[in-house]
Design brief:
- The protein is mostly helical.
- The chain has three domains: 163 residues, no CATH class; 181 residues, P-loop containing nucleotide triphosphate hydrolases (Rossmann fold, 3-Layer(aba) Sandwich), CATH 3.40.50; 79 residues, Helicase, Ruva Protein, domain 3 (Orthogonal Bundle), CATH 1.10.8.60.
- Helix content is 57%, strand content 5%.
- It has a five-stranded parallel β-sheet with strand order 2-3-4-1-5.
- About 3% of the residues have low confidence.
């Protein structure tokens, strides 16, 4: 059956959840071990969930399984028969090695890291159970047994925390996405989109200029617009127009605005007549590559068809070129993309994005990629002041206020975050995570007040921002 959560969404939900938890681990060695081992543990858990369900493995299960990986780790590429065998032979749940280290850390620091990991595991297993838009009683019972096995090892203080109960998510309809919220969907949404006036070039450029930082990227975009305009004028005057590729490579770390700029560029290309529609279709490896023979070209072609007239934005594109596995299906996706870029070169643009070093390896992995991607935009990390600017903007847009003490605390926090950044630095994503956690703490605090006034409802305090541990 066609589900309401596709593999790309599964990957994003999984990767975001794991990455957010990873940033809460204060011990560097434990954090590194967690990053190395968590994907294997979660994939094993998925096998257990699907075995408990008792239904036959479908191609959709394969897509879900191959979406269970985090940034920097090798994406899985299980075939249909391999997954079917693995599910049938699932040996039983076993706590991960790093969980014991979390328990030790909690006993030393008094923290609740292990308890929070159990809750994370429950949420991830429920996500895997939703492969058929159903969380059955059998699946929920298995999830609770896994959580209970780990909970038995917790200390007295952490055991007092009730934790998540998977039974509350038992349903016969899509449990984690696709519920009717009153928002327009499907044909209704498309009809509304057609009625809304498209933004002008001036409006799009103003939005680009309003983004925090990205000075070099902004200059590169304006230069690209000028290049396209002059090429059009030369053509109108019967002057030679040399071949030019408008496909782009975005280099930089997560959270630096690559997706936002890609969306604006799609609109800008439409506004200056390069593209007919200007929509942005965002995918990663899991949205293009299938886990069984003959399906990757079909899956990739479907995404290309959806993006015709606009931009196909491929995040973490380097994952398509697996140099260690010459028969990896990612190569089939690349070949399909290259053919589409040639066949639809007048109304189809591809933007590939990812870490600088890995993306350079990706482009040089195939001569066809080198010839079509010759324009590079580099997205630098946000510094402390820029992170603070982003945080202040989030507060303003969402109706929250901060006083001088909060501003001083946040500025020092973001300066330290930038100065001590490592490979897990999330740029604007880290800012959003801090903001969302602060809002949650503020809600807990204000909910206990009898008659909070408007100012109290809006104010964030230092304690709201202060991170645990």
């Amino acid at each position: 059956m066609s589900g309401s959560i596709d593999a790309g969404q599964v990957h994003r939900q999984y990767s975001d959840g794991i990455s957010a938890f990873r940033r809460q681990i204060a011990a560097p060695e434990l954090g590194a071990q967690f990053a190395r081992e968590v994907d294997g543990f979660m994939r094993a858990c998925a096998l257990g969930v699907w075995r408990e369900d008792g239904s036959a493995v479908t191609p959709r299960h394969v897509e879900y399984y191959n979406a269970i990986y985090t940034r920097g780790n090798q994406p899985p590429s299980a075939l249909f028969w391999e997954l079917s065998t693995a599910v049938a032979e699932f040996p039983g749940f076993c706590s991960p090695n790093f969980f014991g280290k979390m328990l030790e850390w909690g006993r030393q620091t008094g923290g609740t890291l292990a308890r929070r990991f159990i809750d994370l595991t429950v949420l991830m297993l429920l996500l895997f159970a939703a492969v058929d838009d159903v969380v059955s009683e059998e699946e929920a019972a298995f999830v609770n047994r896994c959580a209970g096995q780990m909970s038995a090892a917790l200390g007295p203080g952490e055991q007092g925390h009730a934790g998540l109960d998977a039974s509350e998510f038992v349903t016969r309809r899509a449990p984690l996405a696709g519920r009717d919220t009153g928002a327009p969907t499907g044909e209704k949404q498309e009809a509304q989109a057609e009625e809304e006036p498209l933004p002008t070039l001036e409006e799009l450029l103003a939005e680009l200029e309003g983004l925090c930082g990205l000075d070099k990227v902004k200059a590169d975009v304006k230069s690209l617009i000028n290049l396209v305009k002059v090429r059009r004028l030369r053509r109108e005057h019967q002057l030679p127009v040399p071949p030019m590729s408008l496909h782009l490579v975005f280099l930089g770390n997560p959270g630096t605005g690559k997706t936002t700029v890609a969306r604006l560029l799609a609109g800008i290309y439409r506004a200056i007549g390069v593209l007919s529609k200007g929509q942005l279709v965002e995918v990663d490896r899991s949205g293009l590559v299938a886990g069984f023979v003959g399906q990757t070209a079909i899956k990739t072609s479907q995404m290309i068809e959806k993006a015709l007239g606009g931009v196909l934005f491929i995040d973490e594109a380097y994952a398509l070129a697996n140099q260690d596995a010459p028969n990896d299906f990612g190569r089939e996706a690349i070949e399909t993309l290259l053919k589409a870029m040639e066949d639809h070169r007048e109304d189809f643009i591809v933007i590939v994005a990812g870490y600088t070093g890995l993306m350079e390896q990706f482009i040089h992995a195939n001569p066809g990629l080198e010839s079509r991607f010759n324009k590079y935009f580099f997205f630098e990390d946000y510094n402390g002041a820029q992170l603070m600017e982003i945080f202040s903007s989030m507060c303003r847009k969402n109706g929250y206020t901060i006083d001088d003490n909060v501003e001083k605390y946040a500025s020092e926090y973001f300066d330290s975050l930038y100065e001590n950044r490592d490979e897990n630095f999330g740029n604007a994503r880290d800012v959003r995570n801090l903001f969302e956690r602060a809002v949650a703490r503020q809600s807990d605090r204000v909910a206990g007040l009898e008659h909070p006034d408007r100012e109290t409802l809006m104010a964030l305090t230092v304690e709201d921002l202060r991170e645990e541990g």
